[in-house]
Design a protein that fits this description.
This protein is an alpha/beta fold. It has 27 helices and 38 strands. Among the domains are: about 60-225, Rossmann fold (3-Layer(aba) Sandwich); about 235-390, Rossmann fold (3-Layer(aba) Sandwich); about 395-460; about 470-545, Arc Repressor Mutant, subunit A (Orthogonal Bundle); about 880-915 and about 925-985 and about 995-1005, Jelly Rolls. Helix 5 links the parallel strand 2 (about 115-120) and strand 3 (about 145-150). GO terms for molecular function: ADP binding; NAD+ nucleosidase activity, cyclic ADP-ribose generating. Keywords: Hydrolase, Leucine-rich repeat, NAD, Plant defense, Repeat.
């Protein structure tokens, strides 16, 4: 990974910028196919891109509008406290004199706040001050795109919208004697705010939880709306962008490959990041595949075709944001992307195979696509047929000085009194951006005297060999002993590892890992990205060089062994004392095969080992160190650890694809330090050891352990367990009742456990965020229930934080009860017996998947259609239901409005049914539905929704919002279109692709949504209730259901 001039995390900036763009609702702009920004539960309106008139210098994070007598001393005070704890600044008007009108100071406060929260209470409308505040807030929302979040505190949104009930009585009293125009403004504002999805106090068990969720939502919205400035201070970047313009030719429909080539540390990656940040929104799809050399290394033992299949799968997974991509041949990229305008950046490429797998030919991509390949090896570019190459040269003297000063002084020129010192250091360091960054970070904050004292030491280092390594080592030498040790641990063993794993594995080796990581980040020796610790390639080389120089001729006297030949030498000699070695990393080297069964005998202090079964004799485990803390050994070939194996200090155990049948014989072993255990695809594993002492175990993965019959009851002692993955444990029959003790378990995956009988009463459902029961057809909900579940009702009278429930393939499930309000994904595909949904879905961001649930009764189908959601729902249907007042065969229809609407937007519920291709073997994979709306002469893409999988004979329903300012006619033409990468013939040896067509579509307006019978769209309708689509069961009351 290369570095340029930026002290902030460019990746985070790109992500925030992209999310902010994706949060915008488009009506008069063309939607892009970037990763969709998931709105949060109970969120307010989606963040909008602010127009140029929106104030850029925010004075406050949040402006709260409230009726003081209702909430100031109770609910509001708790909100203020929670917001302050999260660093959220609220405007509070305690010092303002209240009158009937609001003054310019208050108007400026509203305009100067990023978010307006309207706390609507019973007596809110009794105050003309509040009503005038609300008018101004709605005005800012409509003119500036200000984010508005309503909190409905003990009041019904419908009463606010229609000014009825007690709220309406209060409002009418306030309106007495007021001008008609003023009343109309108040009504408009109340109607607008009531239609925004917000927080309802009746949906939360406690006010504290509602306030906490609101504060979290606000904090996230502030983060997403924060302007990106990560590239603002990049010295010389505009020059690079200008030089690349004729190479990119972004206005051309030609597909181009462009290379960015230069030496390590010169800034190639940062240039690519800046380019991606500027232009990614101009493409339908975009992906930045970083750190390819490390993350997508070429295994030496694999054949060329398998390597390319693996790389193409990873590439498509990143591009489509889908972790379950299936790639059976190398033509998939072409088939999927040949009609898409894409921007692809392949960073840190070091093998031709990487390019050939992900972007071999330009005709794989649609017109206007750009493929950027970043490498230090020009041969890769030539072999890939890249004709347009941007060579990154060293910056000029002036640019280099500016870079150094930005890191040393946070400005582009030296501070007073430091001019001569800065020039001297810069002259010693040279012009390589990485060296300038490291040395600038080193001198940052030092006094003039400290600079003067440090210069001779730096000069001494450079006198030795004069290379950049000496510059980097100077910064290393300035670290304390503990931080030097941490640096070497990362460079030699823990590079690209998760932060929490590094902390857990090193907490006994390094005194203060958290502080040490902070120091290394401050000194620019590491950076943390996506919760992983990363290090520049030159710094990796530096760390390994430092260790190698501990003993050049005798590798057994070094701390870490990374070179295959050195490892072979040490492990082949079981007579030489190698007690200095604490870590060995040897991975997939077919040229090394250590057959010595006593290989580890003299490595008394070995703590960290990562290898695979093809490199080292597995019998050598008999002599493994008693101090081992990390053991990662793939393809381990013996059935049981020897009796001499002592896991007392073991923190992490990873044994993928092992031949283990059990871990060890005999009595209980001390496992108090064990935090992560992963035995995935150990297909012969029949039992786990006693876990009574594994009280600190956090993650346990037994995926694909198909011989495992049961879990030990002692698993209940693993009270810190957060993730348990048992997918495809096809011989597992029961879960122990002791699992009820796992109060921190957030993820439980049981998919593919075809023989498993699950008693949900014995699982701690209160703690789970994700529960996957796919394929578990034999379940219990209570001890006295039958073994074949017909009704799943475990959440009644239980609190729950469950967000994802996957119950695919539960063939005997007949009914679903009320599920937790926290749920945002219900995946119930192929529940063949499912008939009833005795529930409602209250999360406005829920996604419902009932594919192949053909026995759903009419009430269940009605409920699915009625459910308001910002996502989508899918269920079997052969025709558009009559509840959609506008229906059509084909892909378009016209909606006639009674009159032009007054509000800012109109919402519609829409649906489409895909045409059957006449062959059950086909299904649509990775589909996007577009809705083009034409009003008079205005036409634009108003909506795009992406669906992972869609089948013929299924109805796909979603909501569409139309900006009323673009509505110039009482007739709206809705035209639906589907873009898909084809129809996948899933039971054939080869993939075949067919086009996708829409069979029928339907629309119903939600502006004044009636209470419909979804069996007959022609009957008279009653007014809607609070939720717009309330259940038409008279006996239904939300309070009747306990969660």
């Amino acid at each position: 990974m290369d570095f340029f001039l930026s002290r902030t995390n460019v990746v985070s900036a790109a992500a925030i910028s992209l999310l902010a763009l994706l949060g915008t609702r488009f009506f008069n702009r063309r939607s892009k196919s970037h990763q969709e920004n998931k709105t949060m539960a109970s969120s307010s309106i989606t963040l909008l891109d602010p127009p140029s008139s929106l104030p850029r210098n925010w004075k406050h994070h949040v402006f709260p509008s409230f009726h003081g007598a209702d909430v100031r001393k109770s609910f509001l005070s708790h909100i203020v406290k929670e917001f302050k704890s999260k660093g959220i600044d609220l405007f509070i008007d305690n010092d303002l004199e209240r009158s009937k009108s609001i003054g310019p100071e208050l108007v400026e406060a509203i305009k100067g706040s990023r978010i307006a929260i309207v706390l609507l209470s019973k007596n809110y409308a009794s105050s003309t001050w509040c009503l005038n505040e609300l008018v101004e807030i709605v005005k800012c929302k409509e003119e500036f795109g200000q984010t508005v979040m309503p909190l409905f505190y003990e009041v019904d949104p419908t009463d606010i919208k229609k000014q009825k009930g007690y709220f309406g009585e209060v409002f009418r009293k306030t309106c007495k004697g007021k001008r008609k125009e003023e009343i109309q403004r108040w009504k408009h504002a109340l109607t607008e705010v009531a239609q925004i999805t917000g927080y309802h106090s009746t949906n939360w068990e406690t006010e504290a939880k509602m306030i906490e969720d609101t504060a979290t939502d606000v904090s996230n919205k502030l983060n997403l709306s924060a302007p990106c400035s990560d590239f603002d201070s990049l010295v010389g970047m505009e020059s690079h962008m200008t030089r690349m313009e004729p190479l990119l030719q972004l206005d051309s429909s030609e597909v181009r490959k462009i290379g960015i080539w230069g030496s390590p540390g010169i800034g190639k990656t940062t240039i690519a990041r800046s380019l991606f940040n500027r232009h990614s929104q101009e493409f339908q799809l975009s992906v930045f595949v970083d750190n390819i050399k490390k993350e997508y290394a070429i295994p030496s033992s694999s054949d060329d075709y398998s390597v390319k299949l693996y790389l193409q799968k990873q590439f498509m997974s990143r591009l489509t944001n889908n972790t379950c991509v299936s790639i059976s041949h190398l033509g998939v990229v072409e088939d999927r992307l040949k009609d898409k305008k894409v921007l692809v950046v392949l960073d840190d490429v070091d093998h031709l195979e990487q390019v050939e797998a992900m972007a071999k030919e330009t005709y794989w991509f649609g017109p206007g696509s750009r493929i950027i390949i970043v490498t230090q090896d020009q041969r890769v570019l030539r072999a890939s047929g890249v004709n347009y190459i941007h060579e990154v040269n060293l910056p000029s003297y002036d640019e280099a000085l500016q870079m150094f000063c930005m890191y040393a002084f946070d400005q582009k020129y030296p501070k007073d009194g430091f001019q001569e010192l800065a020039w001297k250091v810069k002259d010693l360091v040279g012009c390589l951006p990485l060296g300038l960054r490291v040395m600038g970070s080193y001198f940052r904050g030092m006094s003039e005297q400290e600079w003067t004292e440090a210069l001779p030491r730096l000069r001494t280092h450079l006198d030795i060999d004069g290379e950049i390594t000496s510059i980097l080592k100077f910064s290393y030498d300035a670290l304390g002993v503990e931080n030097q040790s941490l640096f070497l641990h990362i460079a030699c063993f823990f590079h690209y590892e998760k932060v929490d794993i590094v902390k857990g594995c090193l907490e006994k080796s390094v005194l203060d890992v958290t502080h040490g990581l902070r120091v290394l980040v401050e000194k620019s020796l590491i950076y943390i990205e996506e919760e992983r610790i990363k290090m520049a390639e030159l710094l990796l080389q530096l760390g390994r060089k430092i260790v190698r120089e501990e003993s050049i001729r005798e590798p057994g006297k070094r701390q870490f062994l990374h070179d295959a030949n050195d490892i072979d030498e040490v492990l082949s000699d079981d007579k030489t004392d190698s007690r200095s070695v604490i870590g060995i990393y040897l991975w997939r080297r077919k040229d090394i095969a250590c057959t010595n069964a006593r290989a580890f005998k003299r490595l008394y202090n070995l703590r960290f080992l990562e290898t695979d079964g093809k490199c080292i004799n597995p019998q050598s485990i008999n002599y493994i160190s008693q101090n081992l803390r990390v053991l990662i050994w793939e393809d381990f070939e013996i059935p049981c650890f020897p009796s001499s194996f002592n896991p007392k200090f073991l923190v992490r155990l990873v044994m993928h694809y092992s031949e283990l049948e059990k871990l060890w014989e005999g009595t209980q072993q001390p496992l108090s330090n064990l935090k992560w255990m992963d035995l995935s695809y150990s297909r012969r594993l029949k039992e786990l050891p006693d876990l009574s002492t594994a009280v600190n175990l956090q993650e346990l993965s037994l995926r694909g352990c198909e011989s495992l019959v049961k879990l030990p009851s002692s698993i209940g002692n693993a009270i810190d367990l957060r993730e348990l993955d048992l997918r495809f444990c096809s011989s597992l029959t029961k879960l122990p009742s002791s699992m009820r003790n796992l109060g921190r378990l957030s993820t439980l995956v049981l998919s593919g456990c075809s023989e498993l009988e699950v008693n949900l009463a014995n699982i701690n459902l209160e703690s789970l965020d994700e529960l996957n029961l796919s394929g578990c057809s034999s379940l219990k909900s209570y001890h006295e229930s039958s073994t074949d579940i017909e009704v799943l009702d475990p959440w009644r009278r239980r609190k729950s934080r469950l967000r994802q429930l996957v119950i695919n393939g539960m063939e005997k499930l007949v009914s679903l009860p009320q599920l937790p309000d926290s749920l945002w994904l219900l995946d119930a595909e192929i529940c063949e017996s499912l008939e009833r949904l005795d529930c409602s879905f209250r999360n406005p961001d829920i996604r419902l998947n009932f594919r192949n649930c053909f026995k759903l009764n009419q009430e269940a189908r009605d409920l699915i259609i009625r459910t308001p959601t910002n996502e989508y729902a899918v269920f079997p249907a052969e025709e558009v239901p009559p509840c959609f007042t506008h229906r059509s065969f084909g892909s378009s229809l016209t909606v006639k409005l009674n009159q032009l609407t007054v509000g800012k937007s109109i919402k519609f519920k829409a649906c489409v049914i895909y045409a059957d291709v006449g062959d059950d073997r086909y299904r649509w994979d990775d589909t996007s539905v577009y809705c083009t709306i034409t009003s008079g002469r205005n036409a634009s893409i108003a909506f795009k929704k992406r669906v992972e999988l869609f089948l013929p004979g299924h109805l796909f329903t979603f909501e569409v919002e139309v900006e009323t300012e673009e509505v110039t006619s009482t007739e709206l033409l809705f035209d639906f279109d589907v873009t898909t990468h084809g129809v996948y013939e899933y039971d054939c040896d080869h993939e075949t692709w067919k086009p996708c067509k829409i069979k029928g579509c339907g629309i119903i307006e939600l502006l004044e949504v009636p209470l419909l019978s979804f069996r007959d769209g022609d009957e008279d309708c009653e007014p809607s209730d609070t939720e717009r689509f309330a259940d038409d069961n008279e006996d239904y009351e939300p309070s009747d259901i306990e969660i």
